[in-house]
């Protein structure tokens, strides 16, 4: 029983509720009887079959209610070593079947227990197939677990910046120094970079490393929200591009690099989230299955002439990677660090190291 109370106890008692979208459309489901309702967020969906722990602790989901399209969620419980940050960042969770009787040798608690500990609402027994089909037609929208449509109709998508309070350093004597700009970085980006023979300093998104650091390269992380709202970060990247040392980016980092170069970004209809997104390398013509989590993309028509598109999504043809034609500036929209998802594109980190 893993220490849980029986399904007939108070912990597992439920009540009927609704996921209500800003246009008034609603989807019925159940919520725990002890759960306070009314959490608002941008309703988005992820197509991953596994990796709910990593996804919920991904800071890029800040301010969003995450719908899992895979029908069975929670079956392997919660393993703390799988966290991508110190806490859950998603504003809420929507699933079809919530599994209480989890089974995994490394897990210590159920998904429901974890959500209760962190005060994150969930609605389950929802027809997530119908919900996803609706979102794919209408696009992502603001919604709430149990709040009336009238109260959320006027609310627009919002950005919650994720700020690192204190820089983190991983010093290796004599190694080249890399700055990781943390806009809401997943922990596996830190692990992937610090595993290489470099000294790494992780800094907040508004930290001006061009004036205070002697570095050999810059890496820009993922993060939540509209890239155009990161005005300070973009201005700092512009200065870094003038210096000319290697600048690489992942996800939001790709969009910020594009904006710093003079290109534009736009909000996608429903974004790409999950770890089964096919992307083609336009130079080698190889296709990679990638992990993704983004609602914005780079407008390829706005790229300056000295930049080029290097990856495209084979589902919607959106830009999945950009690079400067002559300088060591390079970024991808997908997540080469995975967690969750395939590690087929981990060579991106090796390419960055070789550019230093």
Explain what you see.
The protein is α/β, with parallel strands linked by helices and 356 residues long. The chain has two domains: 10-152, Carbamoyl-phosphate synthase small subunit, N-terminal domain (Glucose Oxidase, domain 1, 3-Layer(bba) Sandwich), CATH 3.50.30.20; 168-355, 3-Layer(aba) Sandwich (Rossmann fold), CATH 3.40.50.880. Helix content is 20%, strand content 32%. The protein contains nine helices and 19 strands. The chain has helices spanning 52-56, 111-117, 128-138, 149-152, 187-194, 209-212, 231-243, 252-261, 347-355; strands at 14-21, 26-32, 39-46, 64-68, 72-73, 92-94, 97-98, 122-123, 141-145, 168-170, 176-182, 198-204, 217-220, 247-250, 264-281, 287-299, 307-313, 319-324, 329-332. The strands form three sheets. It has a ten-stranded mixed β-sheet, with helices on both faces. It has a seven-stranded mixed β-sheet with strand order 2-1-9-3-4-6-8. A hairpin with a 5-residue loop joins β17 (307-313) and β18 (319-324). α7 crosses α8. The longest helix has 13 residues, at 231-243. The protein is globular, with a radius of gyration of 21 Å.
